[in-house]
Amino acid sequence: MSKPTSRRVFLQTAGSTLPFVSLFLSLSGCDSYSSMEDDNDTPPPPGSGITIEGNTVFLDLTGSEARKVANPGGFLHIDAADMLVVNVEGTIRAFSSICTHQGCEISSFQNNRFVCFCHGSQFGTDGQVLQGPATRALTAYTVERDGNRVRITKS
Ligand code: FES
Question: Structural domain of residue 136, as residue ranges?
């Protein structure tokens, strides 16, 4: 039968374990949870105008969410597809929302720039880096539009 752990033994054990736990947490930083690519994203609801089928995303620009990119200046972050969509002067463009620096999810569009809050990288509406630390452009996707119907294909 084992002896109950004394407070002193527990504290010694905890004391030797805590630095490793702290080291793990500090190394993982922002990359480990909320801002990283998340495979448990909720699919867009019916009526949103967003349908995801494998590597293809279909937009119906009359839908409640998809209509955000119906007009110039519009922006849409599709979390479940890790995708950024923007309307630039009537042309719809789409990019991966995974930051090329360390993989955080980009969900913000400010002053015509995609902004990564992890370390401050900014990307233009062509996906190119405008401010580091990222050095590589966002991955661009193929966009085909027919009126209010948009098909985006991840390549
Ligand atoms: S992950 Fe570092 S700036 Fe985006």
Answer: 50-153
